[in-house]
Design brief:
The chain is of the alpha/beta class and 166 residues long. The chain has a single domain (16-165), classed as 3-Layer(aba) Sandwich (Rossmann fold). The protein is 42% helix and 21% strand. It has a five-stranded parallel sheet with strand order 3-2-1-4-5. Helix 2 packs across helix 3 (58-66). The model is unreliable at 1-10 (pLDDT under 50).
Amino acid sequence: MGRKTLGWLIPEKIPGFRADFYDKLSEKISRMYKELADDITKKMKHGSILDVRTGPGHLPIEITKRSPKVKITGIDLTEKMIEIAKKKAENAGFIGRVYFEVGDGNKLRYEDNTFDLVVSSGSFHHWKNPVRVLNECYRVLKPEKEAWIYDFDKKEIYEVYNETRN
């Protein structure tokens, strides 16, 4: 697997001073978040979801719009991203319905068997140790539940999946 650093982009964490830029950039693909939220809420009408590397919180907010009985928590390594996500949730009137906090997918603070679904969108290709993050995602999932990882680099996802099977 070849990981690349693209100038200012540090794998696993977007520097805080770039968070506003990333937020504006991610708004350009808001249709993607709406479509993902549609897919997720077809399956999840209630329960708890963890969004790993939530960025500015677009996906949790879209899920909350569609499914008021779902409790969703978004985590990200960048404090500024969490500030932006919390402000978006407040502006949407979702305080108390969607939660955001600084957190690391490599070492989730949640107990085993906590969530009904774990999702991540567009961040997998930044993970330094994707197997560790996936193991953590599965650890916090309730038995027989799923993790849905959406990313642009499908080839890398399949490589990591095959590594875990060997």
